[in-house]
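Translate sequence into structure tokens.
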Amino acid sequence: MPTKKSIILFYLFIVVLTKTSFAGPIGIGTLSENCKVENVTLTSINSLPTSYNASKCVGVYTGNDDSGGLSSPNPNIGQFEDGLLNGQDGFTGLEFITSEDLQALDPDGLKNDPGWLHLAHFDAEKMDTKYSEVGPAPGGDPSFKFNLGDFLTLSLTCNNDGDGENNLSDCKSMDWLLTEESDLFEELDTLLGSKGFDHLAFSIKAGSENSGGGFAVYDFNLKDIFANDSNSLDIYTPYELGGTLNTADFDNHGVSHLNVWARDPLESLTVPEPSTLMLLAIAFIALRLRILGQ
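Result follows.
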């Protein structure tokens, strides 16, 4: 029979586990009731006006989407349990896609990889944007890594009264702009096809734990959006995507940071000889960003 001491220790363990684990949604209700898709929008494609709310959102969650490497996947090619949206620590990897979208991206041959790439992290207090690396491919040359900042530019502008020019942490509403540069048209089409990303997601952290802040993730299903949009979506057309975001889902706390993700619809990633691997790696990055750039 359990002793009184063992029972107390058991309950202390449960309390500690609850407080330190990846936390659940704030408030009462299902996830879809705790975040609103209209709080993150796509308002322009190549400077042409358009109007799309996020296709879906999940949250609001307590905790931090940066903790434990959740927003620092490595090698950042979309493998299962490598990063928040790939099913690490509380997420399944199927928040915005279905099991039919899963891919085989590593040598284990299992078709269980969600395919989400982390693109960039924006720190509102420091007004600093850091871009992620992609690669190397599993089993490939470890020197084949590429910094997405060489291809991608994320711009954020506060459109309310934030905390001055040197700090956007009090900003509650922002305009976002994602642009990209690349010239590998023929190579990309031959290796990976003419389509680019099929999802773009923003993970927004607002406020602090003490102030009741949290984070939520908003996804744009680009397959659906471009199916309804007059603009074509292929690697031969440079892209610039812009929109807005706000913190209404967080009781209008200021933005703390922002993580940007995109899903790669590539079916598989092989590990060829080094010369081919380099071309594949370059194409791998540029194709994902083609729809996001200027």
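Note: Residues 39-65+124-290 form one domain.
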